[in-house]
Specification:
The chain has a five-stranded antiparallel β-sheet, with no helix packed on it. It folds into two domains: 141 residues, Immunoglobulin-like; 110 residues, Immunoglobulin-like. It contains three helices and 19 strands. By secondary structure, the protein is mainly β. The longest helix has 21 residues. A hairpin with a 2-residue loop joins strand 6 and strand 7. The protein is globular.
Amino acid sequence: MNKISLTMMSLALSVCIFATVQAAELLDVKPVVSGTDVSVEISADIPMTFTYYKIPGEARAVVDIADVNPEKIEALIIVNKGIISSISVDNAQISGMPASRVIFNLTSQADISVSASPDRKQLTATFIGSAAKPAPAAAAQDAKQLQASEPASAPIEQKQAVAENKPAPQAQPPLKEVKEEDPLGLDEPPATTSAAAMPTLPPPARSKKLEPVVPDTPARSGAVTINNIVTGDSYIDIRTDGTVGDYKIITLSKPERVSIDIPGARSSLKAKQVPIKKFGITRARVGIYKTRVRVVLDASAAAFPKYTITNRPNALRINFN
């Protein structure tokens, strides 16, 4: 009887521990606007272990949070305030451990700094540009000092010379063409730190960009609107209002996923995620770009299932054999 009771108690304890681990979730990713500055507050229901870094040569920054599920957070958060254009939230794998990856798509390159609350259940991400503008109060003080340094009897010509010697305001350089944002975060570099002991300092700038595998696909033309994603007995249909012309397949790993890019397409879907839970696929995610629509299929296993794609009159069909 004692052995049975002990076994039952062990099972109950194991279930409680498992439920506690599974319950770790990201609760909110919220931009906070203060004047022209924008910070982002990230909250979870457990103390967070995290790392953060900026992507060298790109206007993007990343915060990775270990052992936290991001499913409750919208995959793409449009901001368009201050330096932040949008925020992507997705699952990631760091040294074989699950993590939440928050990607900040910025309007220009900037350093990222992240601070944590005392209980580490809330993080605050701030961004610092490469050159800070002088504060208006400081500029006004400099003008007063310049005026006070001039003698009261100075001739008008001398005052004009002082004004002419002031450095002329530098012309703003022409805006560089901004790289098209990637709201689904397909080309982010893999994190190189261990989730068990993730530092709170940015990692070295040797993070390598994960290059997608892009198979050759025939060039086609035609613009369509995506109006539904439907799961059948042996297929997933990306339903459209006409025949899809050009499309491109991108395969990525860790985690395993496949994306289908349809240039010139539009989307009438209100949801950014469509649950699949079939064929080894957990969900389909939809990202809307200026020049295309991207549909990403996330695999639930370590390898993406075998598939073929056929072009039908009103759909792209992904067949699973």
